[in-house]
C-alpha cells in the first residue's frame, strides 16, 4: 500500500510540471509563422567598410572604457587605503587624548583626597579646571589640524588620479 501511494504523487507531479510549461489549448487553430524569402543581395562595399569601421571604433571605445574603469577602480582603492590609514592615525590620536585625560582625572582625584581644608579643595578644583580647559583646547586644535590634513590628502589623491586620467584621455 505504501508503494502505491508514493508512486502516484510522483506521476502527478511530472504531469503537472509538463503542463505548466505547455501552452494552454483554447481551441484556437494553430498557424505556422509565414516564411519570407529574402533575395540574396550582396552588400555594397562602401556600406561594408562603414560597418567594419563602426565595429572597430566600438572595439576601441570598449577597450578604452575598460582601461579607464580599471584605473578609476584603482584610484578609488588607493584613496580608500590612504583614507583608512589616516583614519587609523586619527583614532589613535583620540585614544591618546582619552588616555591623557583619564590620567589627569586620576591625578586630580588623588590631589583632592590629599586636601586638608575646603579652601585647598576649591583652589585645587580651580587650578584643575583651568589646566584641563587649556589641555582640551590644545587637543581640539590637534584633532582639527589632523582632520584637515586627512581631508586635504584624500582630496589631493583623488585630484591627482582624476587629472592623470583626463590627461591620458586627451
Characterise the protein shown here.
By secondary structure, the chain is an all-alpha fold. Helix content is 83%, strand content 0%. It has three helices and no strands. The chain is elongated, with a radius of gyration of 39 Å. The N and C termini lie far apart (81 Å).
How far apart the termini lie comes to 81 Å
**What proportion of the residues is helical, as a percent range?**
over 70%
Name the beta content range: under 5%
Mean pLDDT: 81
Low-confidence stretches: none
Number of helices: 3
Oligomeric nature of the chains: single chain
Main sheet: strands, sense, barrel: none
Search tags:
single chain; 170 residues; mainly alpha
List the helices and strands and how they pair.
Blueprint: H1 2-21, H2 45-113, H3 118-169
Helix pairs in contact: 2-3
Brief overview, please?
Helices cover 83% and strands 0% of the residues. The chain has helices at residues 2-21, 45-113, 118-169. The longest helix has 69 residues, at 45-113.
Amino acid at each position: 500500500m505504501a508503494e502505491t501511494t508514493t508512486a502516484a504523487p510522483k506521476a502527478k507531479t511530472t504531469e503537472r510540471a509538463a503542463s505548466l510549461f505547455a501552452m494552454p489549448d483554447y481551441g484556437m487553430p494553430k498557424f505556422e509563422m509565414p516564411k519570407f524569402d529574402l533575395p540574396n543581395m550582396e552588400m555594397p562595399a562602401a556600406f561594408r567598410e562603414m560597418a567594419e569601421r563602426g565595429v572597430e571604433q566600438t572595439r576601441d571605445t570598449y577597450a578604452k572604457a575598460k582601461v579607464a574603469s580599471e584605473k578609476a577602480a584603482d584610484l578609488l582603492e588607493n584613496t580608500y587605503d590612504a583614507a583608512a590609514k589616516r583614519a587609523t592615525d586619527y583614532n589613535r590620536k583620540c585614544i591618546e587624548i582619552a588616555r591623557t585625560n583619564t590620567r589627569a582625572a586620576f591625578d586630580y582625584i588623588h590631589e583632592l583626597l590629599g586636601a586638608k581644608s575646603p579652601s585647598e579643595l576649591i583652589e585645587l578644583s580651580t587650578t584643575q579646571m583651568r589646566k584641563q580647559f587649556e589641555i582640551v583646547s590644545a587637543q581640539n586644535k590637534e584633532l582639527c589640524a589632523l582632520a584637515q590634513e586627512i581631508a586635504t590628502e584624500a582630496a589631493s589623491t583623488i585630484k591627482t588620479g582624476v587629472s592623470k586620467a583626463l590627461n591620458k584621455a586627451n
